[in-house]
Design goal:
The protein is of the alpha/beta class. The protein is 35% helix and 14% strand. It has nine helices and eleven strands. The protein has a three-stranded parallel β-sheet with strand order 1-2-3, with no helix packed on it. A three-stranded mixed β-sheet has the order 5-8-10. α1 packs parallel to α2 and α4 packs parallel to α9. The protein is globular. The mean pLDDT is 96.
């Protein structure tokens, strides 16, 4: 099918991170490497370095992403070139349901609709957030580029702390939120405070998987995995690409609601 449709670049957005889904992606990688037309592949990572150790990211299913990455690394660039997009966490979630997104609403830590926040650590750690539509702009630039692809393609929509998100959300809604903080020790132990946004996900993913993911992401934010300061960015390579900023995004979709 890849050859008959003359596919040159495969962009994987397969989700959720289950063994079955990643087995499908690994099969797609192998098929792409065997294809006579496919030359490039972007795996479904879209976030951070999921291969980080447990000290920084205690999420068991990250090993599935590591397996796909190892598989891609087996092929020389002349057979299959690949790049992994690092874009932090998706900004879309903080506009939903008022912002039209094709993402499952995996809203982390700040539930603007319910006016509740469960903040990892102090909440002062810089975190990168990027709108999916802005990620797509950079993907297009890389697909069109004739230059060799780097292993990592890093983009930053905006870099703000959870505390800053909570403040602008309160400003937009005109009321104070119920706020609690989860310690790094609790998060590393898999203990994360439940907010209504997580409960809504239980009919999509198992409860244990949702809470495990949020606890692990909280650890990653505290330990700097979501802070891309000092990294070489596609923003610098493609300065004509504009990105949404968190404060304006939240105010646009929540002000007065």
């Amino acid at each position: 099918m890849l050859d008959s449709n003359k596919i040159h670049t495969v962009i994987s957005t397969l989700n959720p991170p289950t063994p079955e889904v990643h087995a499908a992606q690994d099969n797609l990688i192998r098929a792409s490497a065997q294809s006579s037309t496919v030359k490039r592949f972007i795996p479904s990572e879209w976030g951070i370095d999921w291969t980080a150790d447990d000290e920084h990211l205690p999420i068991p299913w990250k090993l599935l992403k590591s397996r796909s990455r190892d598989l891609l690394a087996q092929y020389p660039p002349t057979t299959l070139e690949y790049t992994i997009f690092l874009n932090g966490y998706f900004m879309d979630y903080f506009g939903m349901p008022h912002y039209q997104s094709y993402m499952t609403p995996e809203t982390p830590f700040v539930d603007i609709d319910a006016r509740k926040a469960a903040i990892p650590g102090s909440g002062d750690d810089p975190v990168v957030w990027t709108l999916t539509r802005d990620v797509a702009k950079f993907v297009r630039k890389m697909v069109e580029s004739k230059e060799a692809w780097p292993v990592f393609s890093t983009v930053v929509g905006d870099a703000v702390t959870i505390n800053e998100i909570t403040k602008v959300a309160q400003d937009a809604r005109g009321t104070r939120f119920d706020i609690i903080h989860d310690s790094l020790a609790d998060l590393r132990a898999g203990k994360v405070s439940e907010i209504p946004a997580y409960v809504k996900l239980y009919n999509v993913f198992p409860k244990e998987m949702v809470l495990e993911m949020m606890a692990g992401l909280g650890v990653g934010m505290i330990t700097g995995l979501f802070n891309f300061a000092g990294e070489e960015l596609l923003n610098q390579k493609f300065p004509d690409v504009s990105t949404a900023k968190m404060r304006e995004f939240i105010m646009e979709h929540w002000n007065g609601k």
